[in-house]
């Protein structure tokens, strides 16, 4: 039994399992973020920039509009344009006006951006492979389902009481 789980069981597990689960998820996220940052730091990019590059690699050859990138980011950020500015300054992405809709800017990953991903992917994916070794597929699916429900509940708690998107428990 891990120290965090033992502490939760001793202090508040029966009284507040959701809070203990939330703290445990945050600690796991922090551990993963630290590993990712350590790997990416020598390459001069942040975890969010890495995420943008992966999103754009998956969108090739068409590319994606800025707002679509913002919608796919793991962590919401108000400064998506600045994030893209930094990547473009390093020539890791390029932006062009959409021919069909001049208001829209399409972003694409460059060959330099693809090379950077090739250099970092193995180190980034190694910790995920470690998880695959200790979890059964059914456990991973159950965790994903629980995290999806947690995100929905947290998003619902940010809505005003009478908001039309507020889900009813009835």
Question: Secondary-structure map with pairings?
Answer:
Elements: H1 3-11, H2 17-40, H3 47-58, E1 64-65, H4 66-72, H5 80-89, E2 93-97, E3 105-109, H6 111-134, H7 137-157
Helix pairs in contact: 2-6
Which term fits the overall shape?
Answer: globular
CATH architecture of the domain at 41-155: Orthogonal Bundle
Described by its quaternary structure, the protein is single chain
Span between N and C termini?
37 Å
CATH names the topology of the domain at 41-155 as Arc Repressor Mutant, subunit A
> Number of DSSP strands?
3
CATH superfamily of the domain at 41-155: Winged helix-like DNA-binding domain superfamily/Winged helix DNA-binding domain
- Share of helical residues: 55-70%
User: What is the radius of gyration computed over CA atoms, rounded to a whole number of angstroms?
Assistant: 20 Å
Q: Which structural category fits the helices and strands?
A: mainly alpha
DSSP summary: helix tally: 7
Compressed to H and E, one letter per element, the order equals: HHHEHHEEHH
The overall pLDDT, averaged over residues, is: 80
Short description:
The protein is mostly helical and 170 residues long.
General description of the model:
The protein has 170 residues and is mainly α. It has a domain at 41-155: Winged helix-like DNA-binding domain superfamily/Winged helix DNA-binding domain (Arc Repressor Mutant, subunit A, Orthogonal Bundle), CATH 1.10.10.10. The chain contains 7 helices and 3 strands; from the N terminus they run H-H-H-E-H-H-E-E-H-H. Strands 1-3-2 form a 3-stranded antiparallel beta sheet. A hairpin with a 7-residue loop joins strand 2 (93-97) and strand 3.
């Amino acid at each position: 039994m891990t120290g965090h789980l033992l502490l939760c069981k001793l202090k508040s597990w029966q009284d507040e399992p959701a809070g203990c689960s939330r703290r445990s998820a945050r600690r796991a996220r922090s551990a993963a973020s630290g590993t990712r940052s350590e790997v990416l730091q020598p390459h001069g990019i942040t975890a969010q920039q890495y995420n943008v590059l992966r999103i754009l690699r998956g969108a090739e050859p068409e590319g994606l509009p800025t707002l679509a990138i913002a919608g796919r980011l793991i962590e919401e950020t108000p400064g998506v344009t600045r994030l893209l500015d930094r990547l473009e300054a390093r020539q890791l992405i390029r932006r062009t006006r959409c021919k069909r809709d001049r208001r829209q800017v399409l972003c694409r990953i460059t060959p330099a951006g693809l090379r950077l991903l090739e250099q970092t992917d193995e180190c980034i994916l190694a910790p995920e492979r470690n998880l695959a070794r200790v979890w059964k597929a059914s456990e991973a699916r159950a965790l994903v389902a629980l995290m999806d429900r947690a995100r929905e509940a947290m998003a619902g708690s940010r809505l005003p009481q009478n908001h039309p998107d507020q889900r009813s428990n009835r």
